[in-house]
DNA sequence: AGCTATGAATAACC
DNA sequence: GGTTATTCATAGCT
């Protein structure tokens, strides 16, 4: 951010320079000098066309800035923009999808999540594990069913926000399991463990790689 | 965005002006002229301290731009940034909380599903509608349960790849429904729709009592 | 969509 | 955290 005084001073200085330059060349460029812009006002642009053009330009600028921040400063950035017309534009830094980053956002408030996970009904855990290792219940849908039942019995409507977030993660995990299993099954591939469900540590501070 | 040629041309022009200005005053300001900055390189800043300073400044700049875009162009913007240290910074335009805007984000992909939704087993559709209109089963989890049962009865193990994908989407939809409903319920937010997404929200449009 | 003058952001320095 | 020189973004045109 910048103070008003400094800004005004700089502006005057620049105009001074410009004047000097013009004096040097003897007013030759008089024709184009009057494209005065003026400070940008922080309120909704009324003209529809102009607003749309502004949106396009500023949007690309914003996304560029977002990308720069994520690259230069090694930060994780997620950006979602809806145009007035309802179009979606999104950006997520490098290794994080929007979903992951916002999952992280939701997880931040409750670091105690681990405890909740441990504390949840063992049937769910059990079923997921079984499904993954393909021991007794080869039908993945039953797992989802169990999860739903578990949630139902746990009186979802009275869950706290933290619990809901946790529930969301659990169901998402289950969905991943199911998807993987079905994919493997249909493709006729051996069920190899890819990674995702382990411990959800993808958001933890990781050692840096250079 | 701007072309290289134009940029270079303008830079030369400006430096020409500056040179003219200096010549006018006779090199009096020689002492401070050499703060050369150079183009910003698009790669991670190595120096830790510098990176942190850059992060602070650029972050505030980015958030300012985001706010400007949302105000000037009447767009909805959600921005989440995690510093390398793991700190969270967030911005959401005016009337949208981060959760709402990203709920909206998650709902977008469903556009493609309209046809699929119509085509799939009517029992599911029916149950969802019932749940939604709170006639018999206001508990969103039951919807998930029904979907799971439907998939189970449909002999999932013999589904084609396309069908599995579709199933995955359906479950994801259900998850979205559940999540949003719970979020709204717990946060006590009114379910207000601002934009054109409404038509395909087969699962949420009506405000709830309770 | 492409250009340029101007305003704004910010890298380098206190 | 403040200042200034410089690069960068973009408003106004075409």
TrEMBL record, chains A, B:
Region (Disordered): 1-38
Keyword Magnesium recorded: no
CDD domains hit by this protein: MADS_MEF2_like
This protein's UniProt keywords: DNA-binding, Nucleus, Transcription, Transcription regulation
Biased composition (Basic and acidic residues): 21-30
Cellular component, GO, one term: nucleus
Entry protein name: MADS37
Sample GO molecular function, one term: RNA polymerase II transcription regulatory region sequence-specific DNA binding
First-listed, main subcellular location of the protein, grouped into a coarse class: nucleus
InterPro entries: MADS-box/MEF2_TF, MEF2-like_N, TF_MADSbox, TF_MADSbox_sf
SUPFAM superfamilies registered for this protein in UniProt: SRF-like
GO biological process entries: positive regulation of transcription by RNA polymerase II; regulation of developmental process
Domain MADS-box: 35-95
Family matches, as Gene3D superfamilies: Transcription factor, MADS-box
Subcellular locations according to the entry: Nucleus
A Pfam short name: SRF-TF
């Amino acid at each position: 951010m910048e103070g008003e005084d400094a800004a005004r001073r700089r502006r005057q200085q620049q105009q001074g320079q410009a004047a000097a330059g013009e004096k040097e060349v003897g007013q030759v460029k008089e024709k184009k000098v009057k494209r005065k812009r003026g400070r940008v006002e922080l309120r909704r642009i009324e003209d529809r066309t102009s607003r749309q053009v502004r949106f396009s330009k500023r949007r690309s600028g914003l996304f560029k800035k977002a990308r720069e921040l994520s690259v230069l400063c090694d930060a994780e950035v997620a950006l979602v923009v809806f145009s007035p017309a309802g179009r979606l534009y999104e950006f997520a830094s490098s290794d994080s999808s929007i979903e992951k980053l916002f999952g992280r956002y939701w997880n931040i408030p409750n670091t105690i999540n681990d405890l909740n996970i441990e504390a949840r009904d063992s049937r769910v855990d059990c079923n997921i594990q079984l499904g993954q290792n393909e021991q007794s219940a080869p039908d993945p849908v039953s797992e989802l069913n169990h999860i739903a039942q578990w949630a139902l019995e746990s009186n979802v409507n009275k869950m706290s926000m933290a619990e809901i977030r946790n529930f969301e993660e659990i169901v998402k995990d289950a969905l991943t399991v199911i998807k993987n299993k079905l994919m493997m099954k249909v493709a006729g591939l051996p069920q190899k463990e890819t990674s995702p469900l382990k411990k959800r540590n993808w958001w933890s501070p990781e050692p840096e790689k250079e």
